[in-house]
Specification:
The protein is mainly alpha-helical. It is built from 19 helices and no strands. α1 (23-32) packs parallel to α10 (238-247), α3 packs antiparallel against α10 and α4 (85-93) crosses α16. The radius of gyration is 22 Å and the shape is globular.
């Protein structure tokens, strides 16, 4: 079967998404997508639970998995750039029913994440303005995020570029300051060295199960890196910019996550109780900066976390809007959601997603928040589910490409270590999805409420998958019939 070249010129037609994202935007989107509160706040609890060595091991394994997910996605996105990345690829290379379920799964995940970031923004602002109403800050931030997304795709790209720049600069400064403290160049000439890696049973605490428990934390931290696959559909030259943005992601993960956790584990003993707190006053980054004698550490880190929250909200609205638009074009969502304005913005999809995010946020601040917690729990495993979808889509894409007589030299970018990469990513993702709340089954009595809350996303996903399959009578697409064209 022939395929359609995907190098579109930037002058897109009026009824198409505009290719307004430059390589620098994609690079920062892929970089900033994985840097957020998961690193700034979650890294402390990971070290407390599994020790510095256990946390490092968990983040390295998940980092390698994400590397294979991202390089597989880059191979797909460079060849077939589309804003419906996960649903479109699964529809064409696996089964339309799976594509439908993955698409709605992804939209729901990011719509609820938008609500979660609005909740986080109010907590961050109350650090400075403790008596202010929550709705005030959530209202201001949703207007900012909505404005960035409705202006143009370049507005989203520029916003994300600068949000990510602040986060990256903070981590680099943190690592440099931490290393200077470890070797005694700062901290009054007193070298901290490696003594905290030998406190009690460090570097590994709690054994294998503790490391397994950190897998989920690490996975949540990395979620967002895949947005580059969605953004590829609006990049100026995806066959060049997507591989360029992806190529060095492994080293970024190594530098920003592994090195940051290494520094925290050396400077702060894993037995420090405040590591498990999500209070910005005692976040590991704040503690390290305070130990270095830097005044106003808490206020500075609070400002950085605010940019992380705005960045995550910005990306949440962008990604969920684009996936909804693409699904409407594929006939898997209401048709009106596939309409664009003159600037190439899917306004109906943007408005619907914003409303859902705001309603979910309101559910978190009124009543006891029980409805919101169930919504959030249902989204808990969604990130790993669409990573599973990416891994299988990449595996099947390469098989279909070769089966239809194409040469791998035709691919603008080729993921390394195929088929090991997607198979490894699939296995690790599956382990995390199935074992995410293993603690619920270890006590004298099974914690059924905890188990249901943790695994709620799985049956919901399966209902969408097999429900669509039953109604539409879809079948797994044979390799010889997989299509390599994108619906415009």
């Amino acid at each position: 079967m022939s395929y359609q070249p995907t190098n579109q010129k930037s002058g897109a037609k009026q009824n198409e998404l505009k290719r307004g994202l430059k390589t620098r935007h994609l690079t920062m989107i892929s970089l900033g997508g994985s840097i957020g509160t998961g690193l700034f706040l979650g890294s402390g609890s990971a070290i407390y639970s599994a020790g510095p060595g256990g946390a490092l091991l968990a983040y390295i394994i998940i980092g390698v998995m994400v590397y294979f997910i991202m390089t597989g996605l880059a191979e797909l996105a460079a060849f077939m750039p589309t804003s419906g990345a996960f649903s479109t690829y699964a529809t064409k290379f696996i089964d339309p029913a799976l594509g439908f379920a993955l698409g709605w799964n992804y939209w729901y995940s990011w719509a609820i994440t938008l609500a979660a970031e609005l909740s986080a923004s109010t907590l961050v602002m109350k650090f400075w303005f403790p008596n202010s109403p929550s709705w005030l800050w959530s209202g201001i931030f949703i207007i900012i995020i909505f404005g960035l997304n409705i202006l143009s795709v370049k507005g989203y790209g520029e916003g994300e570029y600068w949000f990510s720049f602040i986060k990256v600069a903070t981590i680099i400064i943190f690592i440099v300051v931490g290393l200077l403290m470890i070797f005694g160049i700062m901290n009054g000439g007193h070298a901290i060295g490696f003594k905290n890696f030998t406190v009690k049973d460090a570097p590994f605490h709690g054994g294998f199960l503790a490391v397994l428990g950190v897998f989920l934390t690490a996975g949540f931290s990395f979620q967002g890196t895949e947005i580059i696959g969605v953004a590829a559909g609006e990049s100026e030259n995806p066959s060049v910019s997507v591989p360029k943005a992806t190529r060095s992601i492994f080293w970024r993960i190594l530098l920003f996550y592994v090195l940051a956790i290494f520094v925290i584990g050396l400077i702060i003993p894993y037995t420090t109780a405040s590591l498990q707190s999500d209070n910005i006053m005692v976040s590991p980054f704040t503690l390290v900066f305070k130990k270095a004698g830097l005044a106003f550490a808490a206020s500075v880190m609070n400002a950085v976390i605010l940019t992380a929250v705005l960045s995550a909200g910005n990306s949440s609205l962008y990604a969920s809007t684009r996936i909804l638009y693409a699904m409407a074009r594929e006939g898997q969502a209401p048709r009106f959601l596939g309409k664009l304005n003159k600037r190439g913005i899917p306004v109906p999809a943007l408005i619907i997603t914003t409303i859902v995010g705001m309603l979910a946020f309101l559910a978190s601040i009124y009543g006891d928040g029980a409805i919101y917690m169930w919504l959030l729990n249902a989204a808990g495993v969604t990130g790993f589910i669409f990573w599973l979808g990416i891994a299988v889509s990449h595996y099947r894409f390469r098989k279909a490409f070769v089966a239809q007589g194409h040469s791998l030299d035709e691919l603008p970018y080729r993921a390394k270590l195929y088929p090991f990469g997607p198979i490894f990513a699939f296995i690790v993702c599956l382990i995390v999805v199935l074992a995410q709340d293993y603690q619920a089954f270890l006590g004298n009595k099974i914690d059924w409420m905890g188990a249901v809350a943790a695994y709620l996303g799985i049956p919901l996903f399966l209902v969408m998958w097999f429900g669509y399959k039953f109604i539409k009578k879809t079948k797994v697409v044979p390799l010889e019939k997989c299509e390599f064209e994108i619906n415009k």
